[in-house]
Amino acid sequence: MSRKNRKYSEEFKLSVLREYYVSGMSKRQCVKQFGLSGHRILNMWIARYQSEEEFLSLPSNPNDETMGNRSKSDFKEENIQLKKRIRELEKALEFSRLETMARDMMIDKAEEYFDIVIRKKSGAK
After folding, report:
1. How far is it, in rounded angstroms, from Cα 103 to Cα 65?
2. Cα–Cα distance between 78 and 84 in angstroms, integer?
3. Is 37 exposed, middle or buried (0-12, 13-18, 19+ CB in 10 A)?
4. Considering only CA atoms, which of 14, 6, 10, 56 is closest in space to residue 36?
5. Mean pLDDT value of segment 34-52
6. For residue 68, what pLDDT is reported?
7. Do 13 and 45 contact (CB within 8 A), yes or no?
8. Which of 5, 74, 81, 112 could form a disulfide with 70 if both were Cys (CB 3.0 to 4.6 A apart)?
């Protein structure tokens, strides 16, 4: 199946360019994601619609942080924050495990003391 003579609608072209600019993906990823015939066609669309940015719904603030223009200090700060969040979540998980273990022990003691079955049997229907 040849993709060389494929026709694309104006709406499709604009939506591809909009997604390309907004997401910050590479040209290769864009071509692959939208099934374009090649990166050359994407380059032609970029050149053709460069003056029509209002149709592309580009972000209003070009200084927004994206993955491509962040500094090392930003990455380090984010890394520190993520590691801190991981430690907090690990503590919460350990607390939850201890809570579950305490609840199980309490149920075991109640079953022994009152001589009744509190937990459901695994084979019950």
Report:
1. 46
2. 10
3. middle
4. 6
5. 81
6. 64
7. yes
8. 74
Cα separation, 103 vs 46, in Å, equals 62
The pLDDT value given to residue 22 = 80
Higher-pLDDT residue of 2, 51: 51
Angle made by CA atoms 12, 15, 16, in degrees to the nearest 5:
85
In the three-class reduction of DSSP (H, G, I as helix; E, B as strand; rest coil), residue 98 is classed as: helix
Q: Residue for token digits 């969040």?
A: 85
Top-confidence residue, 84 or 58: 84
Tokens 């942080």 correspond to what residue?
65
Cβ contacts of 17 within 8 Å, gap of 6 or more: 45, 46, 49, 56
pLDDT for 95 beyond 80: yes
Euclidean distance between CA atoms 15 and 56, whole angstroms: 7
Give kind and range of the element (H or E) at residue 32. helix 27-34
Computed over its alpha carbons, how large is the radius of gyration of the chain?
28
Q: In this structure, are residues 27 and 39 in contact, taking their beta carbons and an 8 Å threshold?
A: yes
